[in-house]
């Protein structure tokens, strides 16, 4: 066609980042160097992999040239922290989850990467490395969300990723959401299986194949843990081993109204007792727990507002979300100082030094998930308008005369919630129309800051027309 780009040279064009980082995006994985807590990795379900070496003062994208940009798991080799493993494909179950192409390995702290296989997994839920032998790695392959088959279950390598063995396979519809290793005995493993499938018209979020499996012989054989746990209609499960006493294992279990709840084992998963009926608000989106490294009874649960229990799961309360975005997905707890936390949520990365009373936002990771982009006719430089997943609608300049370039201060919020499409008045770029979820519509005036809700409503009018 006449407007085709096929015959136009685009070699002279180069993309440049304009932001914003004033808000973050969905963070699904965090891995902190055990020997140097100022160095850590941030994995996003849609925004790739980032690294800081200075406690988050700056972050660098380190995975841009690879074959996937959705991250489900990150693990650092505890005996050689230059070795980093990354599982691609987001580990959640919402309608739109981006798939990956297997597991990657870096041997130089993220400078170079190699795809090590399990490419048909599409989504990786977890990775653990044997602290006694770096060549032994276990991977939880979640499998495709919308297709049966592929790589599912627990995979093991004994040669650093050159070859893999599928040591736990359940079925073509059931993969593994998590894999855990007893910190004292690397032969003891726990795998969390989840039976799931999404189609355009429906979603299956559980079944009898979901459950907790345990191995005591490094994955050669597995037993399904059933004593005290729900057995039939079981959904997504999050599991945590207490670092204080690894005989204590916790599980948050999606199940029937009667059986769902928070469970505890004091004998390495052999038997379980229900502590409460609490589960996360949306198990398909949250449902991960993190045991405190100092207090055996303290456990955190990611949720719309992060929850915490101080009595082994009997009672729960909000951990603290002052000046913090909602919808948490991951939590790192400093092994030597349990007041120090790093949380990953829909709004990016937050750090606390007072056990979640106050949070510091890392306003330098531009990973907002953008649904729609619009531009206006402003001069001399046009403005860019975006709607983002759970991070509002914003506008920012395409260029600036500032020698410092475009900064977070140049971006302006035009509407809250999940931002979608924005349109701007053709003649007056100060008048903006911004959509949000459920058909919400506002008219925003840049000059005055007025935000007027103008969504049309159909009233009960039965008059003849």
Automatic annotation (TrEMBL):
Gene Ontology BP, a term: xyloglucan metabolic process
The species this protein was found in: hydrothermal vent metagenome
Keyword Hydrolase found: yes
Protein name: Glycosyl hydrolase, BNR repeat
Gene Ontology molecular function: hydrolase activity
Keyword line: Hydrolase
